[in-house]
Amino acid sequence: MRPDRGPDPATEATVERAPAVGREAAGELERLLELSVRLSSGLELGPILDATLAAAAAIGGTAMGGLCLLDDDGPGPGTSLGFEDDLLARLGGVAQLCLQRGAPVVVADTDLDPLAHEAHEAALGRFRALHAVPVRGPSGRLLGVLTLYFHQPGRLSDRAGELLQRCAAIAGGPIENALQHRRTLRELAERRAGEAARGAEAERLSLGLTAAGVCAWEWHTETGDVIWSHSIYEMLGLQPGDPTPNAEQWYDLLHPDDVAEVRRVADLCVRTGTSFYVEYRVRRIDGTYRWIAARGDIVHSAVPGPPRFVGALHDITARRCAEAALRDGEERQRKLADNLPSGFIYQVIEQPDATRRFTYVSRGIEAITGKTPADIMANPVGLEAWVLAEDLPLVVRSEAAAFRVGEHFECQFRIHGRDGVRWLHCRSAPRRLSDGTNAWDGIALDVTERVQAEEALRASEARYRTLFNSIDEGFCVIEVLFDGDHAVDYRFLEVNPAFEKHTGLRDAAGKTMRELAPDHDAHWFKVYGEVARTGRATRFVNEARALGQRWFDVYAFKLGEGDRVAILFTDISARLSAEAERERLVEELRDADRKKDDFIALLAHELRNPLAPLRTGLQVMRLAGGNVDVVARTRAMMDRQLSHMVRLIDDLMDVSRISRNKLELRRERVLLADVIGSAVETARPQIEAANHDLQVSLPAGPVFLDADLTRLAQVFSNLLTNSAKYTAPGGRIRLDARRLGGEIVVTVRDNGIGIPAYALSSIFDMFSQIDRTLERTAGGLGLGLALVKGLVEMHGGSVTAASEGEGRGSVFTVRLPVLADRAHADEADAGAVPSGPACRVLVVDDNQDGAGAMAMMLEMLGHEVRTAHDGVEAIEAAEDFRPHVILMDVGMPRLNGLDATRRIREQAWGKDIAIVALTGWGQEADRARSKAAGCDCHLVKPVNLEDLERLLEQYAGGRAHKPV
After folding, report:
1. Which helix (H) or strand (E) holds 344?
2. Per-residue confidence at 607, pLDDT binned at 50, 70, 90?
3. In the chain, how many domains are there?
4. Which of 177, 859, 873, 956 has a CA that sits 20 to 30 A from residue 149's CA?
5. Residue 431 included in any domain
């Protein structure tokens, strides 16, 4: 089995297909309905087989198949599709297995499926899968096998398999009828041949009689002897010289069923002396029987004596066989008519006086109407008695027109059937009889299911049209235009309302794509041309630049015959843009997560840096004993390291607050010179430690800003310390400020190691740590620049970074809005805070070392101090000690600081005590909780000594507390 012409196996779609839905399902039903109608009206076997196989191949989506029927002694007639050699010369192994089982047989892969080996099915590379179903007639007789072949391995879907079996079932009846018709024609031909042979025999007998070559005989009744002509040898198959039979021996050669009748006729003739004629069977020497017609007559003689008979024997075997065949054929025709599926055959005789009557109706009428043929023929109006009143005028008009012109009659109407209203389609044609009457031979088919299917199809078409017009996706039907084998354009045959929304093309129906978009990409024509040429559906995503750079998700499939292609598509440009944006955001999140991990590791490293000298300093102080100089230098070192740790944590908290919009600026009218001066003072220790040359240049006149002096000074101190870190000892740092219109532009320039080009875009990002030295000698969390950017933007300004490359220094530029100059500056408050009187302080902290250290420091400042280490102990100590100020830790065992504060406030003695929350939690939500619990102030550990002294001075001497 070689494929005639078909798709390349490498590109053939798999056999498995989803069940057809929508219009495709309606198309399959319409195809089966059309097949049923076509087959029901024909008796020619070839067209029936071809139509059946074509419908089956369309259902299976293949171009290869075979339909082979069985004969009495092996494979019979059949047809094939898509093969050069004769598939019907034999039944394949799977077909034989299908016949044995009487059920469908599926081989999903001829190379792997065990069923293929069991059936000895040899694909020889020409196909990889097949699906065979048996074909049965209405009588249940197995007629043959319908087999579909596929290039690719796989299976038909359940829906397609069911439709294939329905196709075989529909074809079973017409095939059986056609086979019966074929046998009848063959038998009629044999009968005609027999009659021709009989005519030839008669002619030969005539010649034989003329030449005395007939089998003549003479019977002597007294002796029983029979004289035969020479033809008896041929009649009985005797050899010349063999003895011929006498009368009794002749009776022994007769068929047992015929002996009695022949003796009776012979005895009657002897008694009455009359002639006779009888037909009977005689056995030849080989044991076979021949039909003989014996005619004899008595010989009248003037000489008295026993009577003699003479006569002749004629071999009428052919005639009797032809007659039997004719009777058998007529019986089969009657059976065929009586068992016509979904219909019946009838005959109406039209008399010369224009009267009409039914003279024959096959028994199929009973299954449709419940009436017998006799009921129809006995009714004066025949079948019209059961026609619906609404359709009767149509039937009468159609009959009258047909009888008037003597042409064929055809009409479709409704009748009252056995199970309700049924639809009949009647067709008949006139035939002139010898007596001058017209016989109208016709067939009536029950087309109820077809009519219902057509109505369902119309409803389906209406639903399709509604769906076509209402779906939001674009849909169109095109005709692909070819130049030779190349698709060069396509014409829009039909478009739905959403088409214009997705493509931007207006009034496209009837126009070609080249007319609407001359620059349309060639690959679109190629794809649709391939679908039209191969019939393989395709789905793809591609860009149509000529339609405004739109991206489309497209599903295209062949529609019917010809070069029509249906296209369902959606403009996914926005979706792809959103997906790209989502990918960008995901990548940013990944990068942020990666930076966060790096930052946490770096944070741990940086926090350990000051902790190590702090621990070492404690050990030195224990070992120093009374060495005051060592203790002083150690304490100074520890203070520096603690300040460094506090700055790290403050920077971290500030960046967090800025990212969550929780940082509040305390804006006021400030001088730029004050901001820069504060920043330089903060950064000076690090600059001097590295022996850098710092130059500062400010505008000649005063420049006022609406800013938080502390936060803005933090911006420039961070920039200066950043330059100090990443500039080799002895480097140059320059801060220049100049006024440009309503802005002040401040640049911090250094000749340090510079910034890599790849890092410039992310250097201000949170968690972005640019390690610009292999050994990381500069240290730091990398939060300084993120804090700079956040604070500058909160002041309504901007900051940028630039570098000519590694080793060539860096430049940071800050732009800030300037306030209008005023005649005089606010006088600065001067003078140190005078030390105030001592007060009673209760220190509450579950960390005993922390509480003890705080108590020692307060006692050294001259205050009276007590300590407590949980909330319950704090309440008891407060009631006994009656402090002016309570420094209350928040997270403690037994009773936390906030609950302890609430209980103290419930006491009459506790209403005037100043309670300060002293904790490591410094978020806005933490401050709100402490305030709600009754705390007057919220300080974050570690607290600055000057802030603590101011706080204690405010509440010294038992003054009424108020929030700070």
Report:
1. strand 343-350
2. low
3. 7
4. 177
5. yes
